[in-house]
From TrEMBL, chains A, B:
The keyword DNA-binding applies. This is Rrf2 family transcriptional regulator. The lineage of its organism: Bacteria, Pseudomonadati, Bacteroidota, Flavobacteriia, Flavobacteriales. Pfam families: Rrf2 (PF02082). InterPro entries: Tscrpt_reg_Rrf2, WH-like_DNA-bd_sf, WH_DNA-bd_sf. The keyword DNA-binding applies.
Length: 138, 138
DNA sequence: CAAAACCCTACCAAGTAGATAGATTTTATA
DNA sequence: TATAAAATCTATCTACTTGGTAGGGTTTTG
């Protein structure tokens, strides 16, 4: 399941993507528009900034804006940024790989192969869902 | 990600599926064979029993055995039993549906449609992974 | 009748999620 | 240059969940 953070991040990105080109959105604007607790959203926006999805302008009339095309922001990326691995176990993960500690037969745990199939399918689907695609289907 | 419970459950089922027909496995046997803390495994086996995947025989020479074919036990079922919904948000779930509380535009939240596509793909993949298929690919 | 298993309830420690609060820095402009 | 508005930083809090452990009680069967 997605964390609230990831869900809010998606909604915030969706909000930003719907604004006019060159428009800069204040945190409070996004919070109201997407129904997200403002102080919580602050942290999320900073994370999105660190992840290079958005950038910000400080000071008066500052705010946030997208720096990545809404066609190029995928659900997979947001999941990884906020909720980590897409695979069901670390040993089946591409970006968050860790060997399982409890596998006697190291290297080839009994679940790994099956979980990698699932991860592949899920990843493919998640890479197909972009912010742009979410807007169209709303 | 899978919880330890779900992972241990899969490993326990795998262990049971690998035994000779009519063999009954003691808890301690499974715990040693699959490297699972014994007392924790007890709870998991009870859950699997309630879920009608295994049954048990009490008393001396008692233990656990599969009552569902290893071809019919899917990863999707085990996930749902131990970790709940397969969808990324409750509003996109088949078996654990709940409306989202924070969506202004109730009924059609902006994420729902995309998340249902993902859930469909993931579910399809998870229904294809059975205990039997895991054994073959080990 | 006691050994060996199943079965149950309670508890606990550590970590995480989901926030909230307040101070500080940056910037535009009057 | 003062001030207001905005992002940014740091810290804290509470409730819940996870991954177990403890210690029995109950039932079956050799």
């Amino acid at each position: 399941m997605l964390s609230h953070k990831a869900k809010y991040a998606l909604k915030a990105l969706l909000y930003l993507a719907e604004q006019d080109e060159n428009h800069i959105s204040k945190t409070i604007e996004i919070a109201d528009g997407a129904n997200i607790p403002k102080k919580f959203l602050e942290q999320i926006l900073l994370d999105l900034k660190r992840g290079r999805f958005v950038s910000s302008k400080q000071g008066k009339f500052g705010g946030y804006y997208l720096i990545k095309s809404k066609n190029d922001i995928t659900l997979a990326e947001i999941h990884r940024l906020f909720d980590g691995a897409i695979a069901l176990l670390p040993c089946a993960s591409l970006n968050f790989y860790e060997p399982c500690s409890d596998c006697k037969t190291e290297e080839e745990c009994s679940l790994r192969h099956g979980l990698m199939i699932i991860r592949n399918e899920t990843l493919k689907a998640m890479q197909n869902i972009t912010i742009a695609s979410l807007i169209n289907k709303k």
